[in-house]
Amino acid sequence: MSSPTYSTAPGAELQDDLVRAGFYPQMVQDVLAEAMMNQPVLDHYVHLETHFDNTEVHRHITVMVMSEKVLFILHVDDQQLDDHGKDVMAQVSVEMIALARIASVATSFVYHQPQHYSAADPVKELTFGMSWGGTKRIDLAPADCGDPQCEADHGLNGTSQPEDLVIRVSAEADGQRAVNKAREFAVRLRLATIS
Predict the structure, then answer these.
(1) 3-class DSSP state of 4
(2) Which residues lie across from 75 on neighbouring strands?
(3) Are 47 and 20 contacting, i.e. CB atoms less than 8 angstroms apart?
(4) CA distance 102 to 170
(5) pLDDT value of position 117
(6) Which parts of the chain are beta strand (E)?
(7) Cα gap 103→54, rounded to integer Å
(8) So what's the pLDDT on residue 108?
(9) Residues 109 and 121: beta-carbon distance below 8 Å
(10) Using CA atoms, how far apart are residues 179 and 190, in angstroms rounded to an integer?
(11) Does the pTM of the predicted model rise above 0.85?
(12) In sequence order, what are the residues at sequence separation of 6 or more whose Cβ sits closer than 8 angstroms to the Cβ of residue 150?
């Protein structure tokens, strides 16, 4: 499919990364092109995960694409519908978030042997998260008054935390290149949300 979405150098790089990931690349490109409505790709990050469940393999891809004012987030999951893996279904979802709506871009780093740290040391793991108020996680637990003999209902205590998107990348599982790309994308996304 020829689309202005992929006409930029970052658009061509996105297509290359999708083909390299090998997870229904043409379907992902077509769904993104439709969602982006001919806006050109300015930046992107592709994250592929594989999970094993007994005899089944489940894959999930998250694709984040920046245009001038919008971040598009695409998720694809596949699922075997038979025991032999011949009948497969893919579920695709796309979300559009205005860059101005992104409230937080957070990164958490893991360095090995920090006692010998130098500026050239690579980050071994990166957790990259952002929130825009789309999803909240609420953790509730029964409240108590501290009296072990009390049997009264004191309601619930809880916390509400934004949890829109969190991705963990490790050099051991995903390769150092993937960690570096995630870190660089997080920096560029942070810059795009404050400009």
Answers:
(1) helix
(2) 62, 93
(3) no
(4) 25
(5) 94
(6) 43-53, 56-66, 70-80, 88-98, 104-110, 125-131, 136-142, 156-162, 165-170
(7) 39
(8) 94
(9) no
(10) 17
(11) no
(12) 144
Tokens of 90: 């893919």
Which position has the token pair 């920090």?
A: 114
Q: What is the mean pLDDT of the chain?
A: 88
Query: Which residue's structure tokens are 């360095």?
Result: 111
| Length of the chain counted residue by residue | 195
User: Given the structure tokens 């279904």, which residue do they identify?
Assistant: 89
Q: How far is CA 186 from CA 21, 31, 102, 105, in A?
A: 20, 23, 12, 7
Alpha carbons within 13 A on the beta-carbon side of 128: 24
**What DSSP character marks residue 101?**
G
Q: Return the structure tokens found at 186.
A: 């997080």
Per-residue DSSP letter, 100? G
Closest Cα partner for 180 from 170, 193, 166? 170
Tokens of 115: 């006692």
Distances from the Cα of 17 to the Cα of 13, 29, 99, angstroms: 6, 11, 23
Kindly report the backbone phi and psi dihedral angles of residue 88, in degrees, each rounded to the nearest multiple of 5, phi listed first.
-120, 145
Asked whether the predicted pLDDT for residue 1 surpasses 50, the reply is no
Six token digits for residue 93 = 């979802």
- Which residue has 């909240």 as its token pair? 136
Determine how β-strand 136-142 pairs with β-strand 156-162: antiparallel
| Angle of the 25-36 helix axis to the 9-21 helix axis, nearest 10 | 140
